[in-house]
Each structure stands twice: as structure tokens, then as C-alpha cells.
Amino acid sequence: MSGARRRRIGVMGGTFDPIHNGHLVAASEVAHRFKLDEVIFVPTGRPWQKDQAESKPGHRPVSPAEDRYLMTVIATASNPQFSVSRVDIERNGDTYTVDTLRDLRAILPDAELFFITGADALESILSWQNWEGLFELAHFIGVSRPGYELNATHLAQHLETLPPDTLQMLEIPALAISSTDCRERAHAGRPVWYLVPDGVVQYINKRQLYRTRRASSPGVSAP
Ligand SMILES: Nc1ncnc2c1ncn2[C@@H]1O[C@H](COP(=O)(O)OP(=O)(O)OP(=O)(O)O)[C@@H](O)[C@H]1O
Ligand SMILES: O=C(O)c1ccc[n+]([C@@H]2O[C@H](COP(=O)([O-])O)[C@@H](O)[C@H]2O)c1
């Protein structure tokens, strides 16, 4: 008897500080083109490369994980194909994609995973923890992003021994939106409407996120 088709699950990892429409379009387009059953958004717990960059003068620390998680839930709630996982925010220590994928494989042992990453993140993947092990855990889909070239020739030589569909590229509708720009807008009192979902605009206002350059906002408390 032939086995059932394996569920095809997209994994969209990100710091999502805040989640914006560029993330949502990327996930939606990959879901359609790769016939995915679902996309799981995975907010990072401790994004070690961003933490390092943001310890430089003039940069602000990453917002509390619980705020980033809740914005991701709000942004994805209306799409039945989208869900949000807490695996990265519940794991102690720095967030490594190799752990994300291992955790998701343990939860979804029969699924085929497709990790979605923008062209900028793809450029730096050789600096990720245990990157050689990543491609055995999931397919990788690199998506275009304004300002970055969608090119993985630097990776190709390292992937020669792996199956040809290990890493695939996809041009998506260009949205020149970044979380950095959204934070700077919110900080300066400029609008973020239509760059992020409406509920995320309201959450940013309610929690007064990005008003200061320091992470001075209190933690999320239960209602
Ligand atoms: N506009 C976009 N188009 C396509 N991919 C994107 C876009 N913005 C972010 N991504 C991808 O989404 C993933 C998560 O991104 P992240 O949460 O770091 O957002 P960001 O906008 O890059 O944040 P920041 O400006 O703080 O660096 C990464 O793989 C990133 O490349
Ligand atoms: O595994 C790593 O070492 C690693 C280093 C940097 C980024 N990542 C992952 O890449 C995704 C996008 O990260 P970021 O920092 O651009 O929001 C997110 O899922 C991160 O956990 C992973």
C-alpha cells in the first residue's frame, strides 16, 4: 500500500520586531508556489547575531520575545494556513535554526519542512551555527528582497553533495519593507499603517513599542 502524501510545512523564522507585510507576502507566495499545507512562523528567542549588532552604540536591543510573539500571532490570525510556534522563545540560550528545525521535526515527524529565508539572511547562512547540518533537516527556499541579490553561488560549492532541491530560489512581489524602518518610523511618530497589519499598528501603540531607543518597556502582563 502506498503511503499518504507527507504534509509540506513552511517554516518562516524571524525576529519579527515587528512582523511586517514583507514577511507575510513571502510566506504566502512560498506557500502557493511550493504547494505547502501550512506555514509556521517562528519568532526567535535570542537572535544572537542581532543581539551582537545591536550592542553597538546607537542601536536598541531586540524587543521582549513575548511582544514579538504576540504581534506575530495577531498578524497571522486571519490566515487559516498560518500558525505560530513558541519553540524558539521557550528554548534557553541563543537561537539557532538547527535547533528550530530539530524541534519542529520532533513535533512533526512525518512532515517535509521548507525553511523560508530572505536574500539577506541567505547571504549570511554560512555564519550560522552548524550550518552544514541545516540542509539535511529541511529544504531551503530563498526569496527575493529589495536591496539584496538573490544569489547562492557562494553556497553552491558547499552543497554539491546534497540533493538538487536542497536550496531553491523564488522571486516574490517586491516589498521594500524592513522591521528596522518600521521601528524608526514608530520612534519618530511616523505612520506604519499598511507596512504592518492593522492589529500590529494597534499593538505597537498600545504597548508603546519603539518609542525609546532603550528596551525600557515593561514585560507583558496577563490581563
Ligand atoms: N521585505 C522582505 N521581503 C522578503 N523577505 C523579507 C523581507 N523582510 C524580511 N524578510 C525575511 O524574513 C526573515 C525574518 O526577517 P526579520 O524578522 O529579521 O525582518 P527584517 O525586516 O529583516 O528585520 P530588521 O530590519 O530588524 O533586520 C528573514 O529571512 C528576512 O530575510
Ligand atoms: O542558526 C543560526 O546561527 C542563525 C543565525 C542568524 C539567523 N538565524 C535565523 O534566521 C532567521 C531570520 O533571522 P533574523 O535574525 O534575520 O531575524 C531566524 O529564524 C533566525 O533564527 C539563524
Mind explaining what this structure looks like?
The protein is an alpha/beta fold and 223 residues long. The protein has one domain (8-176): HUPs (Rossmann fold, 3-Layer(aba) Sandwich). It has ten helices and six strands; from the N terminus they run βαβααβααβααβαβαα. The protein has helices spanning 21-33, 48-53, 65-76, 87-90, 97-107, 119-123, 131-134, 153-159, 179-188, 198-207, and strands at 8-14, 38-43, 82-84, 112-118, 139-143, 167-170. Helix 1 (21-33) links the parallel strand 1 (8-14) and strand 2 (38-43). Helix 3 (65-76) runs antiparallel to helix 10. It is globular and about 50 Å long. The chain binds adenosine-5'-triphosphate and nicotinate mononucleotide (NCN). Nicotinate mononucleotide binds next to strand 1, helix 2 and helix 5. It catalyses: nicotinate beta-D-ribonucleotide + ATP + H(+) = deamido-NAD(+) + diphosphate. It comes from Gordonia asplenii. Catalyzes the reversible adenylation of nicotinate mononucleotide (NaMN) to nicotinic acid adenine dinucleotide (NaAD). Belongs to the NadD family.
Mean pLDDT metric:
91
Extended strand count: 6
- Runs in which pLDDT lies below 50 for 5 or more consecutive residues are 214-219
Given the C-alpha coordinates, what overall shape results?
globular
Instruction: Please give the largest β-sheet.
Output: 6 strands, parallel
The small-molecule ligands in this entry are: adenosine-5'-triphosphate, nicotinate mononucleotide
Fraction of residues in helix: 25-40%
Number of domains: 1
User: Mind telling me which CATH architecture this is?
Assistant: 3-Layer(aba) Sandwich
Enter the CATH topology name: Rossmann fold
The helix count comes to: 10
User: Span between N and C termini?
Assistant: 52 Å
Please state the CA-atom Rg, rounded to the nearest Å. Answer: 17 Å
